[in-house]
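Hey, I'm writing a tutorial for new members on how sequence and structure tokens pair up, and I'd like a real worked example in the thread rather than a made-up one. If someone can provide the structure for the chain below, I'll link this post from the tutorial.
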Amino acid sequence: MLHFDIITLFPDFFTSPFHSGLLGKALAKQIATVNLINPRDFAPDKHRRVDDEPYGGGVGMLLKPEPLFAAVESLQMLPRKEIILMTPQGETLNQLLLQQLASNYDQLILICGHYEGVDERVRQHLVTREVSLGDFVLTCGEIPALTIINGVIRLLPGTVGKEESLKAESFETDLLDYPQYTRPAIFRGWEVPEVLRSGNHQAIEKWRREQQIQRTRARRPDLWHKWQSTGNNQ
């Protein structure tokens, strides 16, 4: 069972997501567990202050090191753990990283950043990995943290009803997913491709593969070149 510890100034942010959809069901079945820790509870002053002005001047505030270190150090540590800071400066989250986190760890400690960031000593001496959703800035680290939790838990056995469906998704083989259709066969004059209604499974698989390649080449040439270079196109 994978355990998440979330260091967050806003624990209520996670209330609805943790009780909704597949994520809520997975947590109810204890496929994974989550623990919310507010660093304000570890602030050393009576005002429970967790931020301060940066040395040298500058715009905005930084998260102080004392509450973050104390919050993390209060946890019971498992041998296979990763302490992750959610920050725009981190490595970009992708499916491969989600798979690694789901397979190689028993405990993921997620630190949700705020303001202009964190004291550099948190980066250098506390966290073991920094992760970003991409080249943009959000108002809080709770959004990327929830993304990691959702992406990792859905890969754990028992979360998704048909686990074989995970193998055919976008990014699992460096190709985007193929187009999919459901009833009705004709909607406003737009028809479902005839091959999908043929019952010829070999032809359907061939069509789907071709669509994956075409879609990836058109929309994500970077992935298409990566797919070609790995030899998976044989």
